[in-house]
Write a structure and sequence with these properties.
By secondary structure, this protein is an alpha/beta fold. It has 15 helices and 14 strands. Helices cover 43% and strands 17% of the residues. The strands form four sheets. It has a six-stranded parallel β-sheet, with helices on both faces.
Length: 334
Amino acid sequence: MNALDNTLEFRGWGGDLMSEQGVDVVKHYRDLAFMGFIEVLMNLKTILGNLKRCKEDISLYRPDYVILVDYPGFNLRIAEFLKQEGIPVVYYISPQVWAWKKNRVHKIKRDVDLMMTILPFEADFYKDYDFDVTYVGHPMLDAISVDTESKNYIALLPGSRKQEIEKILPVMNQVVKRFPDQDFVLGMAPSRKRSEYEALIDSPNISLSEEGTSTVLNGADAALVTSGTATLETALYEVPQVVCYKGSYISYLIAKSVVDIKYISLVNLIMDDELVKELIQGDLNVENLHKHLLKIMPNSAGSIAQKQGYKELKQKLGGVGASKRAAQRILELF
C-alpha cells in the first residue's frame, strides 16, 4: 500500500476478492499456486520468474507497507526482500512453521514486523522462540451462519488444485455409485473449469455447484472433504465429514519425512485428537471411503459424536470479529 495526499492506495498480488475491495491486482493467485514437491520442481522456472517480477513491482511502486497473506513459500522470500529494502512487513495468517521447517521461525523474527495468527496454538508455539505475535481468531467464524435444516444431500469437496482433483475425485465418484438413491453436490472451486470436474465423474446423482463451499456445506448431511481449510469450514457448518488426501507418491514420501504433525486436518490439529477420520494416500480407496462415509450418515453414532466435538472446536477458536481485530492491529502499526 502507498499513502499519497492522505489517501491510501492499494496494489497487490491476489484474487478476485481483493479486486472487489478496490485493490489494483497486478497478478492473480491462480497463476501462483503449485502443490507438492515434484509439482514445485516442475514449475520452478515459473515460480522464480514470479518472484522476480514481484520484487521488480515492489521496487517500482515503493509501498509504505506490505501486508503478506498466507502462501509462505512465496511470501517469506518476499519478506526477506522487503526487509532489505527497509519496507515494514505485516504477515497475516502464519506459515505452518509448527508443522515443518521450524528453523523458519528465525527468519520470520528477522523479517516480519507484525505477525498475526488465526489458530489458538500458534501463539504458544512462537512464544517458545521468544517472538511476540498477535492471535486474532479465525476469520471463517465471521462468515458462518448455520442452516440446521437438512437438504438431504452429501457434499463433495475434492479440492481446488488440479493435482488434488485428479487424484481424489475419481475415488469419490466410485463411492457415489454405491449410493444410487442418495443425492451428492460437488462444490466447484472458483479457479477451476466445470469441464475439469465433468471429465472425472460419471455418476448421474452428482450435481455440480458453482455457488461456493459455504452454500454447498450449509444444510448438507455429510461431506467428503479434501484436506485443507475446507475441513475447518465443514466443521464450523457442523457437517460430519471424512477427510481425504492423496498426492503424488514421491511428494507424499518427502512430506512424510519432514512434516512433524499427528494430523493433517485443521479440525484434528486444533482439537489435538482424531475427531474426524483422515484417509491419507494409500488409505484413501473406495472401500475405506465407503465404510467411513456410512459411519457419519445422519443420526449415526459417528455423526452425533462429530457434531458434539464441533461445539468444543468453536469454543477453542474464540468468537467472531477476527478480521476487524486484524485490521485494527494493522492500523495501530501504521
